[in-house]
Amino acid sequence: MNFRLLGRSGLRVSELCLGTMTFGTEWGWGSDKETSQKVFDTFAESGGNFVDTANRYTDGTSERWLGDFVNSDRDHFVVATKYTLRDRLGDLNFAGNHRKNMMRSVEDSMRRLDTDFIDLLWVHAWDDTTPVEETLRGLDDLVRSGKVHYIGISDSPAWIASKANTMAELRGWTAYAALQVEYSLLQRTPERDLLPMAAHYGMAVTAWGALGGGALTGKYLKGDTGRINEKSARRNDRANTIAQKVIDVATELGVTPGQVALNWVRQNRQDVNVIPIVGARTPEQLQDSLGALNFQLPETALQILNEASAIELGFPHEFLQSDGVRDVIYGGLYDQLKKNKP
Questions:
Q1: Cα 88 to Cα 96: distance, rounded to the nearest angstrom
Q2: Which end of the chain is more exposed for a tag (fewer CB within 10 A), N or C?
Q3: Cis peptide before 196 (omega within 30 of 0)
Q4: Options 3.90.180.10, 3.40.50.920, 3.40.47.10, 3.20.20.100; which CATH number does 3-311 get?
Q5: What's the pLDDT tens digit per position in 308-341?
Q6: 3-class SS at 177?
Q7: Is residue 342 scored above 50 in pLDDT?
Q8: Cα separation of 322 and 269, whole Å?
Q9: Phi, then psi, of 87 in degrees rounded to 5
Q10: What is the pLDDT of residues 165-184, one digit of tens each?
């Protein structure tokens, strides 16, 4: 296991992050505590130190069990959790990005995790009602108090994160060090705005859904029913075509489809550091994902996968990349300008 810096911070995190939404059986498809412990130990023994959870995962069980697992060497592990999602049904102030919910949720998470601090706190999703400055100032106060070390933003529009980090720079507040988004061969729309934004601000990116909910392992092509509805975009004709290409590449390289899908996420962007979040219900599933660390995809494989999964960038990106527009913007010398760029 190699390590990466979390954005522009000095925090060292493993090149894979262990997702713990499977820790607990409350949602009907997770693992019991003994199996979850084995999954965690497998990750830790491979050298992984970066672990991701949330206040809502398996109704709080994920945090409680993770707290038990890291307790013997708490300072070694980088524990990330999230706030935003509800802890009480029917009460508006037990959910959202506002300061009241933030402070309560963080205190509750620390109790469940049995820890005095959270290494990385994510805003789980943008709520469209709380002012950017309220959320950011609350997070800065948590960092200054020592309860939180770093902050990140998840599942939010690029303009929100961009506004926040610009505001943080101007006001001397703590900026978002990382961005968490769904990103895979089946979900490349973050390439339009979110990933370029992260590159501009030097943010690390953690990618959830890197295996497309298991679709990219090829299991649905084999007739596995799984937990994803047949009407899901992860199981439509386009998804099946991409999954078959992943299988073809894996067969050619002598590796598993899941490993190919993870390495595409790790390698596809050169302008931003993308760290896949890997979840597993069993140690064997995690071992398969860890196998991605043993090789890299050749350029020919990346090209095949990129062509199969290509998306339209839409306006204004395709407009600005068109030859005619580049001609009038750069005086007909765009290619020369590119070559001379540092």
A1: 12
A2: C
A3: no
A4: 3.20.20.100
A5: 999 999 999 999 999 999 999 999 988 888 666 4
A6: coil
A7: no
A8: 21
A9: -110, -10
A10: 999 999 999 999 999 999 99
Contact between 150 and 156 under an 8 Å Cβ cutoff? The reply is no
Q: Are 61 and 28 in contact (CB under 8 A)?
A: no
The one-character DSSP state at 194 is H
Nearest alpha-carbon partner for 181 in 167, 161, 163, 202 = 161
List the one residue out of 6, 283, 15 whose CA is nearest residue 152: 6
What is the Cα–Cα distance from 231 to 309, expressed in whole angstroms?
A: 19
The residue ranges of every structural domain in the chain are 3-311, 314-342
Tokens representing 231 are 């009407």
**Which two structure tokens, joined as six digits, stand for 101?**
């919910």
201 is catalytic: no
Nearest residue to 204 (alpha-carbon basis) of 254, 233, 161, 235 = 161
DSSP string, 55-95: TTGGGGHHHHHHHHHHGGGGGGSEEEEEE-S-SSTT-GGGS
Helix (H, G, I), strand (E, B) or coil at 297: coil
Residues 57, 83, 150, 176: which is the catalytic one? 57
Contact yes or no for 207/182 (Cβ under 8 A): yes
Q: What is the pTM of this model?
A: 0.94
